């Protein structure tokens, strides 16, 4: 599964692709140098494949590389951060 990022000036999203098929999308909004993750959605067809987790981890990798912080407003993304101490360094 490949995770691609589409970054715009005020918003953006991560897309999980399995071949040509979209397995999931996670959207975010920029607030200065902070990424606010506002929605995560995975296609039910890919249930159990960790689609949402892979997109959150891609956002963490991007945040570390760009030295930005993340605000996880999306309940799914927040639950991932709540469960994993190894990624909390990018939280506001």
TrEMBL record:
This is GNAT family N-acetyltransferase. InterPro entries: Acyl_CoA_acyltransferase (IPR016181), Gcn5-rel_NAT (IPR045057), GNAT_YJDJ (IPR031165). Its EC number is 2.3.1.-. CDD domains: NAT_SF. It holds the Pfam family Acetyltransf_CG. PROSITE patterns: GNAT_YJDJ. Keywords: Acyltransferase, Transferase. GO terms for molecular function: acyltransferase activity. Residues 5-92 form the N-acetyltransferase domain. The keyword Acyltransferase applies. It comes from the Bacteria.
